[in-house]
């Protein structure tokens, strides 16, 4: 006949086998083997037995503890693998779903041109730098040799915020991406080779101006940098961007507070069916010249504002409007269409999402 202990053992092992969750199994383990557990209680009874009783009951109780421990471990493995199987079954995805009939959506020409510019300049060793669109007047103006009284500040039609920041500086929407480059000079030091593309804001709105537009600036800081580096870089950039070897540059002296000397860059265009096409010398072809970039040698005061010694480091910088470059390259004549969000315009002028610009594939092959 089975002893009381044998019956209890059978019932306990059945109970373990019947658990359906890891939490229930853990609760059962504590109830059996924990400090206050029933099997722990049985082990404590050994102390009060006579040596004779103990020789008989001891091995039985120990054997029970071992079989219960083994059963708990075995059930734990079974429940864990069942949980894993259930998760794997629940997380399957159907890779046989069909692709849509036609690609949907397209890349906006501004986004495409920004990618093209990043690709062209990456090839020349420039990294892309970004920064805040909400700026303080020091980074946007003062550091760029435009102190508070400077007339160029008024010309920027700046959007100001009503409140100053913690440092007491006036806050504004950046009017150009130059502050990104000031921040990069301070944070990274020299030498430096970056482009700063992004949104900029000026309170100006008519057929050729939108209050938000896109700019890209470039900055090179190194030792012994001179106008020759500027000219070669801009010529190489414009030829790669417009994908033509016959791009001709004309450099004109100009003025910007942040560069000295300053140089405006025109490219020659040719008239083809009454449309201006970049390429060829403007005067010779019956075409003309179009201004595409502002540039110059970085003003000593700006190098110093960037935390560098202008006797040790020199540099050149340039800036241009991305929207204008996009219109020139892709033959669009209305700036405002860029911001209308008209799906028909986008499907005509937009680019395929997978058409990532590469130098070998042509930076701007349209969809
Ligand atoms: C234009 C002219 C320009 C720069 C931007 C620059 C930036 C730093 C230092 C010096 Cl940090 N210069 N930027 C220089 C010359 C021209 O932009 O017509 N933009 C639309």
UniProtKB/TrEMBL annotation:
Localization per Swiss-Prot or TrEMBL: Cytoplasm
GO MF terms held by the record: ATP binding; magnesium ion binding; phenylalanine-tRNA ligase activity; tRNA binding
Transmembrane segments: none
Catalytic activity: tRNA(Phe) + L-phenylalanine + ATP = L-phenylalanyl-tRNA(Phe) + AMP + diphosphate + H(+)
Major enzyme class: ligase
Keyword terms, alphabetized: Aminoacyl-tRNA synthetase, ATP-binding, Cytoplasm, Ligase, Magnesium, Metal-binding, Nucleotide-binding, Protein biosynthesis
Binding site residues for Mg(2+): 260
Co-factor: note: Binds 2 magnesium ions per tetramer.
A GO CC term assigned to this protein in UniProt: cytoplasm
EC number: 6.1.1.20
Pfam assignment, any one: Phe_tRNA-synt_N
UniProt cofactor(s): Mg(2+)
HAMAP family to which the protein is assigned, alphabetical: Phe_tRNA_synth_alpha1
Subunit structure: Tetramer of two alpha and two beta subunits.
NCBIfam families: pheS
Family named by the database record: Belongs to the class-II aminoacyl-tRNA synthetase family. Phe-tRNA synthetase alpha subunit type 1 subfamily.
Listed name of the protein: Phenylalanine--tRNA ligase alpha subunit
Source organism: Novosphingobium colocasiae
Organism ancestry: Bacteria, Pseudomonadati, Pseudomonadota, Alphaproteobacteria, Sphingomonadales
